[in-house]
Amino acid sequence: MTYIDYFKEICSMPHGSGNTKIISDWLVKFAVDHGLEYHQDAANNVIIIREASKGCEDKPPVIIQGHMDMVAVHDADRDIDMEKEGLDLQVDGDFLYARGTSLGGDDGIAVAYGLALLADTEHSFPRLELVVTVDEEVGMLGAAVIDVSPCKATTMLNIDSEEEGIFLVSCAGGARVDIKFPMQEMQGDIGAVYKITVDGLLGGHSGTEIDKGRANAIVLMGQILKKLSDAKLLMAINNIKGGTADNAICNACEAIVLCKPVEPELFEIIKYEILENYLSVETGARLVMDRIAGKPESYRWYHNPDTALSHLLTSLPNGVIGMSKDIEGLVETSLNHGIISMDETGVSLSISVRSNDDDKKDELIKTLLDICATHNADASLRGEYPGWKYRQDSPIRDKMVSVYREMYGAEPEIQALHAGLECGVFAAKIPNLDCVSFGPNMYDIHTTKERLSLSSAERVWNYLLKVLQ
Hints:
CATH class of the largest domain: Alpha Beta
């Protein structure tokens, strides 16, 4: 069977994140049928090992790594249960896609390549260790718990990238910091009720767009509240909400506040002062303060008698903190205010922290915790995962560049990613891991327009064979 045959078999079974038992057992059956050593854990992670070909026993072993879960989405008019049914594959010229659903090329192609290598009888390879994880798409959960002790390799080929000719050699580690700012109910029988709206911002992924100069709606809201507070106008808050994910740059936020009457001219000045640094980027930005008809006493109002919420929000850093000294143009450390909400106990804020250097990540987290302590806010950490630091010396990177140059007559691009990859998790588990992430051309992944270039997949397959040989 070819790698495309294996990919088609993968697509014939449901394997969305959290629904990986069927494909995991299928991988085990493959190992049994081919007489290969395998390890399957309670999370459904699978490791399959093929010993070195005759004559390759002295060559260092290699891990082939990818994840078995896919982002399973379908069009509204596509009648399919993706928890139980496979995909309807179609070919349009050079592209393989699935009718009305995502394809799962991310990362089914890695699994297909790996199985084809293990079953190959034509070529000679060093010991191959296929490591297939679960639930990468929902937080690298499988990589976090997998036991890699059966593996002997310290060289890893991660096939989880979507642009042929681009080699990823570093990624960010990260964590979520959850902040709770306590509030107390108070009487609000004087003043005026206003709704403040910040919207029309570009938003974007907090890993790939954090350095694009885009505004964060939560940060802008904090600045508005701070200016109203400094002017002795802000009295209390009824509600504040914004953001949908802590790793997305917040593009909209709104708040219901109690203020002394605010002159429209004053708010225009506030708006200009806040937006003047974003005018060339956020051309659709909208900051509005509307007075709401009604009596203040009909609302429930909250404040903190010790410190103002606006002081906390404007004291917390946001955006790019530092750039890499090793890779030009790479954001090394950043953070993003992702979600803000409020209930009767106070205001909750979720922040995503990223860094390609774990020490810098820890320093930034400590800074956040110290600021929260100063403002009498509670802070907790969750979802921490390690970064994958750039190696100045990387034999596998040098070998892959050399083979690419020989086969393509061109230079590959060496890049780092300010977002998470499983490589970071494995780098923390395998001492001195030497790793490169690469893959064939795929487009619109995680959507129903996802498609895999068949010609690119074939070129990358031949390249992979050459690298291993």
